[in-house]
Task: structure prediction
Amino acid sequence: MHVLPYKDVPENKVERDDVKDVTMRVAAGPDQGAPNFTMRVFTVRPGGHTPHHHHPYEHEIFFHAGRGEVEYEGEVRPVSAGHVAYVAPDAVHQIRNTGSEDLVFICVVPNGI
Amino acid sequence: MHVLPYKDVPENKVERDDVKDVTMRVAAGPDQGAPNFTMRVFTVRPGGHTPHHHHPYEHEIFFHAGRGEVEYEGEVRPVSAGHVAYVAPDAVHQIRNTGSEDLVFICVVPNGI
Result:
């Protein structure tokens, strides 16, 4: 049974020039035999951000903790724990921590990206 | 931009004989144009439970709030906010609220189920 606190999942720093203070945990996906999609848990430290980028697949996002903002196709929207977000394929987007605590969110992507 | 608190998503009671005090919100999916999968937010009231069932598709689950337990192929594991769970296709499973507050979890499924 793959049931565990997300903090027990191995945490890896996202190493990209356009990313600041972000880690990723793969909560469920191909390693568990999942045929279709992968659930990742991201932690963005205060002042950190994900890349300002786009890609040909979608994101489905749930904000578990903290405060931040989503930039989406040039528009900015504040988010906090309990917000959901959909990022369409090819939409330019970025997530930024604007708070004083870690921003923790779930981001689901198709397998094989 | 589809970015909003999950509580602003329309909430529907899950009407099944084997379900007790559960609601579902479709946070992101085909209505937003998502090609592959759907993120739902479930709220289980204290004492409530999801069906004890199985189906040919997977679940990827994140527990956002509350306390409960997952039964999976006859084994039971306690869960609370921040736990993740993977349910394989055809595995028998049930989620039960064993706490005094709402149990809120995200459950992702393939489209077209």
Remarks:
- Chain A has a mean pLDDT of 97.
- Chain A has one domain: 6-36+46-107.
- The domain at 6-36+46-107 of chain A is CATH 2.60.120.10 (Jelly Rolls).
- Strands of chain A lie at 2-5, 12-13, 20-28, 37-49, 59-65, 67-72, 75-80, 83-87, 93-97, 103-110.
